[in-house]
């Protein structure tokens, strides 16, 4: 049977659903255990939240996390992430998406190598190089792993270098809300349809100067929200951006920043909670974020609230001519 320490982990539950011809009928549910009380357990499943009374549970146990997500799941999440960070210039090379945004951020200025490019791999890489050179930009390819392992191998042979490994981490929205209780002792999380000037200023401190094209990317998504946390004097303590995109209604969390003097107070977690609450109102069940593996402090923060690595990607750079 499950215990408190199983909360936050993937479990399978066999539930008694009835009796037919003197035989007990069962139904199995697989998902993340987000709550366990003396009377019920709650799962975050692929179809949504499921509450099961304990007196209906025949058997339940923790199961290992799947080692490798299905390729279709990686593609769907990458496409949702592309919609949440929309480069103003996009073109298709078969299933690959070529993106340009004046060199602001790698994800908006790289070819997303998912799907079939409708030509040989070598011809596809040549096509990427030609397209970016025509746009006056360095050729970059975003290669999700392990899906794009053949792409990475081909780029290795051509001498393309790799930027730091990025983790694409996911969590159920219900699990986030369970793991992060509301804290009335902290300033509230304010959500706005558009960012204020000080929101941009805090992001600039982390990302550098924001060109007009950056503002366009950040605000172009139909379902987007900007989080602010202010001190009693009105000064900004933390910011973040949330966007819901894709057929699966993924919540993408990005640009989570906390002022140095406000760190280690749980403010960043409250921002994540605020975005999760906003997303549930829009039918979102799953959240994702992208973080460099070497950013150990951020990886630890996200792990504490329930994020785990779904897959990874490398941004590959063509050698200089």
UniProtKB/TrEMBL annotation:
It comes from the Bacteria. Pfam families: Rv0428c_C. PROSITE patterns: GNAT. Residues 189-321 form the N-acetyltransferase domain. One of its GO terms (molecular function) is acyltransferase activity, transferring groups other than amino-acyl groups. It comes from Paractinoplanes toevensis. This is N-acetyltransferase domain-containing protein. InterPro entries: Acyl_CoA_acyltransferase, GNAT_dom, Rv0428c-like_C. Gene3D superfamilies: 3.40.630.30. SUPFAM superfamilies: Acyl-CoA N-acyltransferases (Nat).
